[in-house]
């Protein structure tokens, strides 16, 4: 044990002893245990707030959404509407699939279907498998194959975004975060210094802040702490996700349970909805496939052409480059073209669009995105 390790370990033990003593906790087997310990609710918390009411509850209760809450998703027709937009999201992700995480050249054993050509020892992989001849082919990896889409209460799609971590050399350009920023930006688009013309009435009447209480966000993965936080601050209503993310450690559920609207508090966090709750069978397929990816013996995900670089990875973003993941997104995306609605003439909100209108709109949106949308790039980067 070196000096730094000793100091760090000593500091840790001293700190944990203080915490354990102060809060009546004991350290058992390397983990804190609250057995036989009373932990009074701190005085700064309102006694009737969700966090105060959950203070003594075990983690599994706080990290789980009660089934009766999830059941309030609505009528079967509303589930069908969610399903339409989940499938559209899958189609968008498949359309803009780019698995070149470490560049287009080299060898990715799990991406054989994405090979563009082989020449002697060189193999080149396509970064944009479906670009037409007149469109830019995005071989450079811009971000992960993770996207999010916003739909308003009537069923109209507002916009979509992809993860752009690589493009911005950042680890926080997540799809949901970019989408929330984009939605707020959109509300300002028509504000120009000439807008009010002869008076400033137009601006005076404008709300000081907007919220997204009627917005549903559809996204690839269970949202992380950053994106859950942004959606919570934006008052997003609900977030439907296509796959669990172990890196999210159920933070969306925890925030939802601890920030629920009460008589005295308007704070809230979006309801996280796993896509299997709205009838998306690909949710299970993606989770199972990722578990297989994790459980297979470590294998090389990428080898550079000169064999100097080898990457073995079990990250979910690498999984989302593989043929197996891509095929699942393709199946989901293809389903939208042949989808037969059970509730075509029903709207999920008063005055909203019927499911048939939503389905037609979704197909129309894809045509736009295919040519103009790219990975959310024509609008503000
Ligand atoms: Zn995130």
Automatic annotation (TrEMBL):
Species of provenance: Nitrospira moscoviensis
InterPro entries referenced in this protein's UniProt entry, alphabetically: CMP_dCMP_dom (IPR002125), Cytidine_deaminase-like (IPR016193), TAT_signal (IPR006311)
Lineage: Bacteria, Pseudomonadati, Nitrospirota, Nitrospiria, Nitrospirales
A GO term, aspect molecular function: catalytic activity
Signal peptide as annotated in the record: 1-37
Keyword Lipoprotein belongs to the record: no
UniProt KW Signal keyword: yes
Taxonomy, superkingdom: Bacteria
Residue ranges constituting the CMP/dCMP-type deaminase domain according to the UniProt record: 144-242
Keywords: Signal
Protein's name in the database: CMP/dCMP-type deaminase domain-containing protein
Pfam families per the UniProt record, alphabetical: dCMP_cyt_deam_1
